[in-house]
Amino acid sequence: MNKDDFVCIAVDMGAGSIRVMLGVIDENGMSYEETHRITNEIIFREGHERWDMEKIVREIRVGISKAVEVSRHAPVSVGVDSWGVDFVLLDDRGELVDAPVAYRDKRTEGMRERWRTMMPEMETFRRTGINFYVFNTLFQLLSIRDSDVLKGASRILFMPCYISYLLSGHARNELTISSTSQMLEVSSDRWDDRVLAHLNLDRELLGDVIGPGTRLGPVAIPGTEGAGMENIAVCGHDTACVVAAIPVEDPSYAYISAGTWCILGVESDVPLITEEAFRFGVTNERGYDNTYRILKNITGLWLLQGLKVHLPEYTSYADMEEMTREGGDIVQVIDPDDPGFYNPADMKEAFDSYFRKTGQPLPGMFSEYLLCAYDSLCFSFRYHIEKLEQFTGKSIAVLHLVGGGSQSDYLCHRIATVCGRRVVAGPVEGATLGNMLIQALAMGRIKDLAQGRELVRKSCSLKTYKPEAESDRSAKRYQRFMKLKDTL
Questions:
Q1: Which one of 3.30.530.20, 3.20.20.70, 3.30.420.40, 3.40.1190.20 gives the CATH number of domain 246-426+447-488?
Q2: pLDDT digits (tens, 9 = 90+) for 339-385
Q3: Is the confidence at residue 254, as pLDDT, over 70?
Q4: CA–CA distance from 199 to each of 155, 176, 187, 194 (Å)?
Q5: For residues 396 and 385, what is the distance between their CA atoms, to the nearest angstrom?
Q6: What is the band of 2 on the pLDDT scale with cuts at 50, 70, 90?
Q7: Which residues face 296 on adjacent strands?
Q8: Residue 71: DSSP 8-state
């Protein structure tokens, strides 16, 4: 590291863990090291599932101080990204009105039905571009409309924006995280007045929306005095950071962010707000540089995590992939997005229940459940890719697989073969890299996103997988999968 390197701190807030990363961009590319990590858990308090905000804030400050301490050269800037939809309520002194409630809390039950009495769903989709999910900010705020806790709020800030407020004193909501709320106009950076009116919210509570890359001023927290760091509003939504860091070469691509849940989508200059897209569950979230992420949320490796509990504790995911070789040619297939797989008490029983419901025989060996899970995920990816091609008119030749799932050779091979497209796997830490890139862009150290993505290609170990010939039996199972999707 030399004095001309760009050094920054990326705070990556996940619903399961929060990490503070020290990042460096130099002539050789990008690198990072984790300086602090905490487990982020939902706690039950005062009748609701909540985030332990006191712990989160304390540990992020500790992590930033550690990063400053261990860095050989002073970090130039700090950026924060997070999961979507959740928010804090601040009073007129800038303090928390209440411990923030987590998106998994049951307070949103019945809110979609209640919203339908206020505004037709298709109109809501056309106005905001966001599809209906039980955890949306829209439903969270609807559940507390006219409550004392909301009446006591002077400002609403989304999670990463609240941390940025504590870092620099500027209470501003950033575009990409704001777009997850289902309250922002689809084609502007303005809050939708009709949506807010139904929530009895004043626009001032949410404030003006700023774009990713906005400089918010110097960081001022204990332990960093004199460091001279700038607080940058990066893409507040972690998936927007991930997409910013995708090492794109061929523009005819889609991305799959593969983890517990999978996000499959394409980048576009315009949103997709047709009635067909709405019925299919497409949502339009905002990205860096005035782009849209036209995407579909898909149940992901959650299926394998649920099946893993039936195996000995020492069994690794690599072991599970090896077990699939025992499965041979199976006939079973599932739809991963069936509600029965959302949060079952027993994942294997959820598979059996689905097989009975759809008239399929039960597997004879446990390895066949694993093979069914992997293949059905790949069938789901292919199905949604083909639908996105149909809806957008865009031909997709390359799939960029990012996130934890990109580390699986088996999964990458199967996706390439089942989907009939080239797969480029990596990077794993896309949110951190995107966070770093946007900081560098904001500080003038990178000229544009294309240069940033070239740095990612230069820095990360990427692997390409080419499709192989698919068996006739596998092709027939995909046809069965499509029938299940279209009839159930």
A1: 3.30.420.40
A2: 899 889 999 999 999 999 999 999 999 999 999 999 999 999 999 99
A3: yes
A4: 15, 21, 21, 9
A5: 8
A6: low
A7: 264
A8: -
Give the up-direction half-sphere exposure of residue 384: CA atoms within 13 A in the CB hemisphere. 29
pLDDT in tens, 50-85: 999 999 999 999 999 999 999 999 999 999 999 999
| Radius of gyration, alpha carbons of the chain | 23
Neighbours of 391 (CB within 10 A): 16
Alpha carbon separation from 463 to 80, 260, 487 (Å, rounded): 29, 21, 37
Q: Do 53 and 62 contact (CB within 8 A), yes or no?
A: no
The torsion defined by the Cα of 219, 222, 226 and 230, in degrees rounded to 10, comes to -10
Q: What is the dihedral of CA 238, 241, 246, 248, to 10 degrees?
A: 140
Q: Please check the confidence at residue 326 and state whether its pLDDT lies above 80.
A: no
Query: Tokens standing for 77?
Result: 């800037």
Domain with CATH 3.30.420.40 in the chain: 6-239, 246-426+447-488
SS3 359: coil
Q: How far is CA 190 from the centre of its chain?
A: 23
pTM to 2 decimal places:
0.92
Mean pLDDT for 133-160 is 96
In which residue are the tokens 């002073």 written? Answer: 74
pLDDT of residue 317: 93
Tens digit of each residue's pLDDT (9 = 90 or more) over 373-407 = 999 999 999 999 999 999 999 999 999 999 889 99
Structure tokens at 217: 């001023």
Beta-carbon count within 10 A of 143 CB: 18
Whether 238 is catalytic:
yes
pLDDT value of position 348 = 97
SS3 412: helix
Q: Between β-strands 17-26 and 29-39, what pairing exists: parallel, antiparallel or unpaired?
A: antiparallel
Q: What six digits make up the tokens of 137?
A: 């900010």
> Which residue in 12, 86, 105, 238 is the catalytic one?
238
Q: Give residue 327's pLDDT.
A: 64
In residues, how long is the chain?
488
Measured CA to CA, the distance from residue 67 to residue 59 in angstroms comes to 12
Q: Which residue has the tokens 């505004």?
A: 119
Q: How far is residue 51 CA from its own chain's centroid?
A: 18
Domain 6-239 carries which CATH code?
3.30.420.40
Q: CA angle 182-254-34, nearest 5°?
A: 80
CB-count exposure of residue 386 (10 Å: 0-12, 13-18, 19+): middle
Structure letter (DSSP) for residue 108: G
